[in-house]
Amino acid sequence: MIFHIPFTNEDVVRADATPVTPELYARSKHAGIEALVYFQEDYLKPLVQGLLSRSDRDRAILTTYYRTMGYVLSILRLDAPWHFQSISSAARSTMELYLDLILLTRDTTSESTERFHAFTRVERFRVATEIAKFFDANPDEKHDDIAVQRALAGDANSKAEIEALIEKWWGRDRKGKLRRPGHWSTYGDVRSRAKALGSSYEAKYVRFGYQLSWHVHSGAMGVAGIEKESFHTFVGLAHGLVIETAIDTFRIVCRELHFDRVIPDLNEKLDFLGRVPGLRLVDLRLMAQGGAQRFTFVEAGRGAPAGAG
Hints:
Largest sheet: none
Number of strands: 0
Number of helices: 11
Structural class: mainly alpha
């Protein structure tokens, strides 16, 4: 990956003569998504694959990282305004995963890690129980083979273990009933998690969360009366959120897994990733004036990125 800024101050001033349209804005942000993928392929993927041992904490961090990269790789393929719903869904999920990662890594004890893994078991048991209960009560409804779910839901030892996990990590309510968790942490909704981390994180949620939800859920709240060009803006805003959270995700993963010790000039490289959309925008504005493309972060002859691995 190339880390080079080809523009002078005079170039930037000259680019200002070209208006920033919603389409140019969205295209510049998509370049930032592409740069994220090339960075993780060149620097993070080899290190992750080379880890010889992984603690429970490492596995929780890597699971969250891989899920984030899955969304980033998906968004890379989505570069048109009519993709705004899928992009918004992915952006909202990357924000939630980002908050999860911070909650996990701020805890210097093992509690969050244990909750994280416990919730996986609790939720799988809950869903297996719901599936088995429904189709046992409605045997004429079409369904796939649910023998595995029935076996899990009907296992008395598994049920006892799950109830013990719930009591240990989420406790009971005032009536003595087990508190069925909706998330691995003790916070039930996304905004509560963001607020617990600090006002800047809650501000990020308030800034993006509601609008992204409008674009994901049914109804016309996010699209009624909107001009066609605005869909480019929706895409660009969502891409911008993903870029911001993914860069910080890279920073946290590198710190926690000690990759910062082996990646030269890591902070400078991550700062460059944050500047990619702005640099691409300068390039696009100069190209609109008849100039040739000058900004790239990909070596000549290199193909499309392969993925997270």
